[in-house]
Amino acid sequence: MLWLVVNPFIFRPIDRPAHWIEKGVLGERLWLGRNEAAAVYKWSLRVLLLLGLVGLAGMIAGMVTLNLWLAIGGALVVMVAQIVRLRRFADIYNLYISNL
Fold this sequence. Notes:
With 100 residues, the chain is mainly α. The protein has one domain (19-98). The protein has helices at residues 2-10, 20-32, 42-64, 68-98. α2 crosses α4 (68-98) and α3 (42-64) packs antiparallel against α4. It is globular and about 50 Å long. InterPro entries: DUF6653. Keywords: Membrane, Transmembrane, Transmembrane helix.
């Protein structure tokens, strides 16, 4: 919760994205706004969300059962799925910009 409060003061607003992660943030905004460019990636983003939820379940199960490898494996799946989702959001942004 503290990070959500402090984050806007640490990082400046993005005017012209230079890196794929900045484009990913703006692409996520397009996705949330139901932009037409985002519809192309609808299926893959849902699969990645499902994969992340499976990883989250594995991570929680690993923590509850004190299984270190299951917890680490689940966390790894969550992180990889989220990074790939962010990359898809960057693709949405690039597609949107190319259609302007």
